Amino acid sequence: MLRYNRTAADMFMDTMLAPHPPVTSAYAGEHVKKPRSISARQNSCAQIFITEFEYVHFVPMQSQSNLHLAMKSLFKGPGVPPNIVCDGAKEQVGGPVRKICQQSGCNIKEIKKGTSWSNRAERSIFAFQEAIRLDMKKAGSPMAYWDYCGERRARIMNATAKDIFMLQGQTPHSFMTGQPTEISHLCEFAWYEWVYFLDSHSQFPLPSMILGRCLGPAESMGTEISQHALLASGKILPK
Question: Rounded to an integer, what distance in angstroms lies between the CA atom of residue 134 and that of residue 154?
Fold first, then answer.
């Protein structure tokens, strides 16, 4: 499918799983433990795609069966890499994922069992998780918004120049796309910072400026600097 952009760099991928803490609920006098997603958007895992020069594409998912949708997000975003390197998990090397890669001209390279160290995503996923933990710890934000935090942290990593010879002083985003890196939507607001935003549906005498918490850039919604905002009611705008 030539409608997708092409990239010159191979990508490594791996799945990041979020825990499902048990919830005890009483029904008819009996206590039953039920699994619960810790994400406000019902995401229980995420797919991480990363290059040798540490360009990160982070896609939260409700389940691992949605991996083919994450793959489409990668192809529609930065583009189709020549090869994708991953372990031998069934969701990553077969089914809809393999079909999409075959149609798009992308090869899947499977790593041998017991050599997971050769997958660059294995090494980077830990550093990525630690960065998300640190952001949430510093701000004191609830765990339910880890996927918003991960999306924001991935954009920051892509916009940060690194001491990697391959980049030649560029940011991973600029090297990957050939476009200048915009940071206004990242540097104006901190993670989970108190912010005011304009409520266009507010009627007199209710205030038009509403206090909320910033949850990171809202991609493809509003202007380039638009942010997700958490209301006191628990609702998140824009949806």
Answer: 14
